Amino acid sequence: MTDRAPQPVDRQLPTEESRDLLALVREIAQREIRPKAAEEEDSGRFPREVFTLLSEAGLLGLPYPGEFAGGEQPYEVYLQVLEELAAARLTVGLGVSVHSLACHGLAGYGTKEQQSAHLPAMLGGGLLGAYCLSEPAAGSDAASLTTKAVRDGDDWIITGTKAWITHGGVADFYTVLARTGAEGPKGITAFLVPGDVEGLTAAVPEKKMGMKGSPTAQLHFDGVRVPDARRIGEEGQGFSIALAALDAGRLGIAACAIGVAQAALDEALTYALDRKQFGHPIADFQGLRFMLADMATKIEAGRALYLAAARLRDAGKPFSRQAAMAKLFCTDAAMAVTTDAVQVLGGYGYTADFPVERLMREAKVLQIVEGTNQIQRMVIARHLAGPETR
Predict the structure, then answer these.
(1) Which residues are catalytic?
(2) Dmax over Cα atoms in the chain, in whole Å?
(3) Which of 78, 95, 207, 389 has an alpha carbon within 20 to 30 A of 51's alpha carbon?
(4) N- to C-terminal Cα separation, the chain
(5) pLDDT greater than 50 at residue 120
(6) Is pTM beyond 0.90 here?
């Protein structure tokens, strides 16, 4: 074997504390996550114990306030943690991103009483969250959702079906968007729903191309009763809460994509340095050297893009356009890099004996979740040219 194996990413971090944090994350990833990733993904096993460990280590609430058991880390640090976790196993990295998305509404729009009552357990108490926006007939057109919440005294009765829910059936709480008023975005309200509430059931998880260890399922709400004290924000404010969460969540997807791409490049580089043909390592051949160079360039560009957007968010500046750009570019880059990694490994890359085929299958979903890349292009174009006039 070559002694020129890939080195850990040289990260630009703002503090010594954040450098120690990333070192801890890499240690956990190497010891607890990466060794089991291939086997557990193949068997479809969800690693709930890993999320418990991450919660105990304070890694499930990094971008949230310390007064509620959060880590008080800037987004540029939190996203690099996601990248490291996703490089070890996307089911874990994406799972942490989805959990953070599920906490976003209460952390940003809840009352102090609500935050004090629920956030400590959500951020550091071992709980795992999920986010319920999409429906079978309302994906990209999320404002057309039909799940209803009807007022009944001091409670709301929720009825309907949510679809494509990451952690569906295994989450301890769900942030649910439901219609409480007229059609359109202004008739939607957000609720914090316990995972064990009566009337809430999960369908059999979807059989997927990749990320088989992460359950994705429909959720059925059959007269689920939720107290008004669990309503997040004002009535009719839900869609704006959802959009704010998705801006932040898209940066999480971008970081996960770069993690997957980095893992694929590392595998391809190690193989190219070790594999010999015609008496030389295949990394000596210009065709492959250029592929590796292009792969590394896409990764560096994507990382710079998502970090630039994160720093805007940390500074309290608008970042919606940059978040859409980062999600679009990083996930397209991950698809390209993982595909090239399979090519570098040749026939071996097409087998399950090496992880690059799994990484390629996993990269595909990142172009779809939390707004397809076609939707990201629409978001970017609206920032540039204004709303469509048709």
Answers:
(1) 370
(2) 79
(3) 207
(4) 60
(5) yes
(6) yes
